Amino acid sequence: MTAGDLEALVRVTSPGYVGETPPDIAFGMTETPFGRLALAVTARGLVACSYEDEHVVFARIARELGSFIGPDPRRLDPIRRQLDAYFAGRLRAFTLPADLRLATPFARTVLQMTMGVPYGSVTTHGEIAERIGRPQALRAIGNALSANPVCVVIPCHRAVEARGRLGGYAGGPAAKERLLRLEGAVL
């Protein structure tokens, strides 16, 4: 997304934006060794870290949160630095809080369980289902993980299917495998 594209999106969703007022939601992109990520930060924390197309992420945030969205590198730089350190193997836990308002209540429960999976470890959809008291909800668990609005930071990549199958991932199966290998997880 170019600066012009972002300015056009901002004009459509926030017509009063004049460029000097800090936005309620800082929005931007970052390049990583595992693909390009759309980022958004609210006063509550990181609301988006997504492999999805930036226009899709921006539109979803505008539709669901309805706030003043725009560029604000000062607020995005901390997560960019943490992502850079993570991908370089120097960071094992992110410190920026997650704002899970883009997730359903069920998905929030699932994602909070994945936040407890240690760096370098994996869990299964079945183990998550058991922990939340929904042992038959395997498909719902998979759907919640695939809809994670804060990929990488909330480590949904650490949840695998039964019998060692990786399962899906928003960034694709190759990205999921690379993330797990980066963390030294035994597959």
Describe this structure in words.
The protein has 187 residues and is of the alpha/beta class. The chain folds into two domains: 3-87, 2-Layer Sandwich (Double Stranded RNA Binding Domain); 105-183, Arc Repressor Mutant, subunit A (Orthogonal Bundle). Helices cover 41% and strands 14% of the residues. The protein has seven helices and six strands, in the order αβββαβααβααβα. The chain has helices at 3-13, 54-65, 73-87, 105-115, 125-131, 138-146, 173-183; strands spanning 25-32, 35-41, 46-50, 69-70, 123-124, 159-160. The strands form two sheets. A four-stranded mixed sheet has the order 3-2-1-4, sandwiched between helices. Helix 4 crosses helix 6 (138-146). The chain is globular and about 55 Å long.
Describe the secondary structure blueprint for this structure.
Elements (H helix, E strand, L loop, with lengths): L2 H11 L11 E8 L2 E7 L4 E5 L3 H12 L3 E2 L2 H15 L17 H11 L7 E2 H7 L6 H9 L12 E2 L12 H11 L4
Parallel strand pairs: 1-4, 5-6
Antiparallel strand pairs: 1-2, 2-3
Helix pairs in contact: 4-6
List its traits.
187 residues, alpha/beta, Double Stranded RNA Binding Domain, 2 domains, two-stranded parallel ribbon, 7 helices
